Amino acid sequence: MACGLLPAIDKQILLFERWLHQHLTAVGDPDHAQLLRRFATWHLLPRLRARAETPPISPAGRRYAGEQIDQASALLGCLAARDRALADCTRADVDAWAVEHSASARANVRGFLQWSASNRLSPRFKLPTAQGPGGTPLPERGRTRLLGRPLTDDRTPLRTRVAAMILLIYAQPVSRITRLTIDDIIRDTDQILLRLGDPPSPMPEPAAVLLLEYLGQRTATNRDSRWLFPGRRTAAIRQHVLDLPAPIVATALGYHQVTTARLAAEAGTTWSTYAPGDRSK
Fold first, then answer.
1. Which of 37, 60, 61 is nearest to 49 (CA)?
2. Shared-domain flag, residues 28 and 101
3. Could you tell me if 111 and 172 lie in one domain?
């Protein structure tokens, strides 16, 4: 059999396509799923394939494509909650979504909005200028020096050391670190993996030893929570959604309504039939 007749396929593209299929399968609205599939097929995948020619795509590049799909999904869900279709989207709708999301989320949704406007799937309007981080990247030597402290400083609480270690090794924002669960730590034969995306990332030594030590401490002291770093924030929000309707809590605290609705359901709130809106009419 002749070899080398078929073009090489980048591993990261295959991983993205597998993730995309799973993501679209989970999208409840078929119209939303169709829009996201078109966006991925005609915008994201051609760009990934072009970048794969030289050099190969990095895992970060593949995760960036996934983030654009995630944020496009979140925007479509927000529009649906406001009884809006993408074709009727206005700057006010985008602004309402933006105030509930981080700067990185707002940056990641720009590609979808620009694509939809250029294909006449949504009105064309001026988007806020994307702003990069103000600081300079941390040099590798400085990052390594900082990493030595959480690995060796026994005076600092283990919880804080492990969180700092994840931040320095994987450059993850604190908002992402606080969403990790104990299920995101995977023991795979002779290595420890941390699920930050697909595939999970290997945890180097001696950081893996410290992570396992914290995991043992964490599961022994709080068996009722799956969060890797359980704190008072989620507990406080759960109390709020027991006392008030989830949409009001979302507006007051700056959370997405999907998040507060999920927490309300988990907490067993009696406000589940509340419908947000202007009651003065």
1. 61
2. yes
3. no
Using a 10 angstrom Cβ sphere, with 0-12 exposed, 13-18 middle and 19 or more buried, the burial of residue 185 is buried
Question: What would the two tokens of residue 197 be?
Answer: 């995306």
The whole-angstrom distance between residue 211's C-alpha and the CA centroid of its chain comes to: 22
Residue 108 is assigned to a structural domain of this protein: yes
What pTM, to 2 d.p., does this model score? 0.47
For residue 75, the number of C-alpha atoms closer than 13 Å in the C-beta half-sphere is 31
258 and 204, same structural domain? no
CA 67 – CA 135 distance, rounded (Å): 22
Place of tokens 């999208």: 27
Residues 78/85, Cβ–Cβ less than 8 Å: no
Same domain, 16 and 113: yes
Same domain, 38 and 111: yes
186 Cβ neighbours under 8 A, 6+ residues apart = 192, 193, 194, 195, 200
Co-location of 214 and 246 in the same domain = no
Residue with more model confidence, 15 or 58: 15
The residue segments making up the domain with residue 88 are: 11-118
pLDDT tens-digit readout, 218-253: 888 777 778 888 765 555 565 555 666 666 656 555
One domain for residues 145 and 111? no
Answer whether residue 74 is part of any domain: yes
Q: Are residues 99 and 180 in the same domain?
A: no
For position 260, what pLDDT does the model report?
65
